[in-house]
Amino acid sequence: MNWKGHTILGIIFGLPFISSPEQIFLALAGALYPDLDHDVKEDIVKRGLLISGGIVLINILLYFFDRQLFNVDLFILGVSVLLIYLIPYFSDHRGLTHTFWSLLFVSFILGYLAYKLSFISSVFAGLISLLMVTNEVLLGRVMIFAVFAWAILDIIKLNPGIDGTLHYILPIIAGYLSHLVGDSMTPAGVRAFYPISNYKLRKKESIVLIAIWIIMAVYIWKDLIF
Questions:
Q1: Closest of 156, 157, 151, 73 to residue 115, by C-alpha
Q2: Integer distance in angstroms from the first to the last C-alpha of the chain?
Q3: What is the pLDDT of residues 92-103, one digit of tens each?
Q4: CA–CA separation, 11 vs 122, rounded Å?
Q5: Which of 106, 133, 154, 171 is 20 to 30 Å apart from 90, CA to CA?
Q6: Is pTM beyond 0.85 here?
Q7: Angle between the 122-131 and 100-117 helix axes, to the nearest 10 degrees?
Q8: SS3 of residue 103 by DSSP
Q9: CB–CB of 114/168 below 8 Å?
């Protein structure tokens, strides 16, 4: 599936978990991250490694030369973001980034980062998350879909009442799940349990994933549905 398909599917899967329009950026970040293992996205990964590696290095130097300026939270966050880019850097296409393990790890880290940045602005937090997984060309294309989805969300005003860190993590999980579903429907399938198992998810398994997504959505909206 190409970037257009993943973008559209990411928006659809993210809708039930979005409380405010700017969260669409988070769903798209989750939907687009897995393909960072593709050669054409190498510039994005190298940029991320450089920035996150710089943050980690600066904090290490501060620890040894001026511990008063050393920030444990920033150091942990820097290491976590560094790992987000190391995964696709060492992964083959449709390898580790297309697994459930990566889905959970990346969604938590990206969501937590967005949560920490939300003190500036929730829009800023969402945009940073999306910028982390796109380059200038892809961002420009994706933003067309994002703005359109934002306008629709602003009109229908969905509000499942999700707050705290889950407000930022769940849309990313939904977007990421949409990517695995989309690629499971292709002939190549997805090794979602790699490296524990090389079993490939295909069309039958994608239906199961869609059912899980529906169950998650119903649970989130249960107070309004029932």
A1: 73
A2: 36
A3: 888 999 999 999
A4: 18
A5: 171
A6: yes
A7: 140
A8: helix
A9: yes
Question: How many domains does one find in the chain?
Answer: 1
Is residue 188 in some structural domain? no
Give the integer Cα–Cα distance in Å for 57 and 55: 6
Tokens for 131?
């910028």
| CA of residue 160 relative to chain centroid, distance | 20
- Whether 51 is in a domain gets the answer yes
Please report where in the chains the tokens 């994005």 appear, as a residue. Answer: 44
Structure tokens at 75: 């150091």
Residue owning tokens 């705290």: 164
What would the two tokens of residue 218 be? 């119903």
Could you tell me if residue 225 is inside a domain? Answer: no
The pLDDT tens digits for 27-64 are 999 999 999 998 778 899 999 999 899 989 998 999 99
Q: Let me know how long the chain is.
A: 226
Main-chain dihedrals φ then ψ at residue 13, nearest 5 degrees = -70, -30
Evaluate whether 70 touches 62 at the Cβ level (below 8 Å).
yes
